[in-house]
């Protein structure tokens, strides 16, 4: 069986909507995902980097993120044909471990704990494919990177792109 590694934030879990909502509420702004095309919120508002980080360092931030549409059905289906590993760069936010683990158990109960990998540098991951919204993880990855569209990466052209889980399904199960 070939092996697919899958990132969590902005691939399985809708990170940006909650992050934007918290920022807009606290700073009385009305930024939308359109404002984030080609950049991350911390690049759009560099003076607020500290506050933007603090949201993510809250232990519960990741616990109630919305599930990306179609991800549950497609990952379940993929798991019948591929070995699936969830690979999240959780070391960047160690306070997130418990919330991320509980979130996976709640929304993806069919995945074994043995297939969840909290990592730092993803180049250690030995898989045939990595589905991720951050192209930086592909540079030293030995398999094929599949870029999952997120507002910040719309201008990235170096990798195969999937815009949603329907397209992931078409790529792997055609
Ligand atoms: Mg991500």
From TrEMBL:
Q: List the InterPro entries hit by this protein, alphabetically.
A: 5'(3')-deoxyribonucleotidase (IPR010708), HAD-like_sf (IPR036412), HAD_sf (IPR023214)
Which residues are listed as membrane-spanning?
Answer: none
Pfam family of this protein, just one? NT5C
One molecular function GO term is:
5'-nucleotidase activity
Cite the Gene3D superfamilies for this sequence: Deoxyribonucleotidase, domain 2, HAD superfamily/HAD-like
GO BP: any one term: pyrimidine deoxyribonucleotide catabolic process
Q: Which domain of life is it from?
A: Bacteria
Which residue positions are annotated as catalytic?
A: 7 (nucleophile), 9 (proton donor)
Which family, according to the similarity comment?
A: Belongs to the 5'(3')-deoxyribonucleotidase family.
Know the name of this protein? 5'-3'-deoxyribonucleotidase
Q: Which organism is it from?
A: Falsibacillus albus
């Amino acid at each position: 069986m070939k092996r697919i590694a899958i990132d969590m934030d902005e691939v399985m879990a809708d990170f940006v909507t909650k992050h934007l909502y918290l920022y807009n509420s606290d700073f009385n702004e009305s930024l939308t995902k359109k404002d984030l095309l080609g950049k991350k919120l911390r690049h759009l508002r560099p003076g607020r980097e500290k506050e933007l980080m603090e949201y993510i360092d809250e232990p519960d931030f990741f616990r109630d993120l919305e599930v990306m549409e179609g991800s549950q059905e497609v990952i379940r289906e993929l798991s019948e044909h591929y070995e699936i590993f969830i690979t999240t760069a959780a070391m960047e936010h160690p306070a997130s471990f418990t919330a991320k683990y509980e979130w996976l158990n709640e929304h993806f109960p069919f995945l074994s704990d043995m297939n969840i990998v909290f990592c730092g540098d993803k180049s250690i991951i030995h898989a045939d494919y990595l589905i991720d919204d951050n192209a930086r993880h592909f540079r030293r990855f030995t398999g094929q990177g599949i870029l999952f569209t997120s507002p910040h990466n719309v201008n990235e052209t170096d990798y195969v792109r999937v815009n949603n889980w329907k397209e992931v399904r078409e790529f792997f199960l055609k």
